[in-house]
Design goal:
Radius of gyration: 20 Å
Oligomer: single chain
Number of helices: 9
Distance between the termini: 24 Å
Shape: globular
Helix content: 40-55%
Number of strands: 13
Bound molecules: zinc ion
Length: 310
């Protein structure tokens, strides 16, 4: 059976799959990224994993994968296949596409950004299926986003399109890792909620999930922390709505695991803020932690279809 390699490289773990043309997953595997061994070892681990996946494909389906798609974090030059920078994995100007192509016997390789790949998958085969304009927001350690237009993701001129986590929603607010103050991710990421709830509850181990449980139990301190994050997120979404006018906003990442505890007040807060804008549907992501890997598979298939039409 015709298949491609799909690989998502995360800070701690890698998720991979062999994916058929209709998007169905034929084989899945996970492996630690091993970043504690340094950037060179991480690259070697990625290349070994990809080579093992290719072998798996040959064994199972009697033919090598036709292409590979790899999603990585940080700053990516998608056009030239270069992983420009990742603070998390410690690399700079890594020619990832070339290295993988060489290791995989010259098959075409697509390099994608992890969040944009995840957004692509949510838009095409997940929560945004059939929607031509969507915004994907991932609420994790930070906040990242992807702008979906007609089945593709708008990366921007420099690869920074969709960075809704660094929209300033509280001028002069908390210091952000990017250097600015009051960025959305300092207020509404899973880490921000964890920090705020640890402080409010007096339990240094308390996290965002514990905050959501306390909200469900009616704890007024948790409600205040939660609403603060929801309000910031709604401000960010309304700003995006004014600029991009998506029909659907897909919210994923750790904080979205809270389900209705997040989505009910979030929808209300967005609606309350709209004036002339049409309300977007605010929906949970569907593909969970496999989104970026599935998106990498879509990128690989897209590459093959481009080669056919070129
Ligand atoms: Zn920032």
């Amino acid at each position: 059976m015709k298949h491609v390699i799909a690989l998502d490289v995360g800070g701690t773990g890698m998720k991979a799959a062999l994916v058929a043309q209709d998007g169905s997953v034929l084989f899945e595997a996970r492996r630690p990224t091993g970043r504690e061994h340094g950037p060179d070892a991480v690259v070697a681990t990625i290349l070994d994993f990809a080579a093992d996946l290719a072998q798996e494909g040959r064994t199972r389906f009697g033919a090598a994968p036709l292409a590979a798609g790899v999603a990585v974090p940080g700053t990516i030059d998608e056009k030239n296949g270069i992983a420009v920078f990742s603070a998390n994995l410690g690399w700079r100007d890594l020619p990832m596409r070339k290295l993988l192509g060489e290791r995989l016997g010259g098959i075409p390789v697509a390099l994608g950004h992890d969040v944009r790949s995840g957004g692509l998958a949510e838009g095409r085969i997940g929560a945004g299926q059939g929607v031509s304009r969507f915004l994907f927001i991932a609420l994790g350690t930070g906040i990242a986003g992807a702008i979906g237009i007609d089945g593709a993701i708008e990366a921007g001129a420099h690869g920074y399109g969709g960075e809704i986590g660094h929209v300033v929603v509280r001028p002069g607010g908390p210091q952000c890792g990017c250097g600015a103050r009051g960025c959305l991710e300092t207020l509404a990421s899973a880490s921000a909620v964890s920090r705020a709830w640890a402080e409010a509850s007096g339990d240094p181990e308390a996290d965002a999930a514990a905050c959501a449980s306390a909200v469900d139990a009616g704890d007024p301190r948790a409600l205040a922390v939660w609403q603060n994050a929801v309000d910031a997120l709604a401000d960010g979404i309304v700003l995006a709505q004014s600029l991009l006018d998506p029909s659907t906003v897909i919210v994923g990442g750790g904080l979205a695991e809270a389900g209705d505890t997040l989505f009910t007040p979030l929808r209300a807060a967005v609606t309350e803020r709209l004036t002339f804008q049409m309300p977007p549907k605010v929906v949970p992501a569907m593909l969970k932690d496999t989104a970026a890997s599935l998106g990498a598979g879509l990128l690989a298939w897209d590459l093959l279809s481009m080669e056919v039409t070129a």
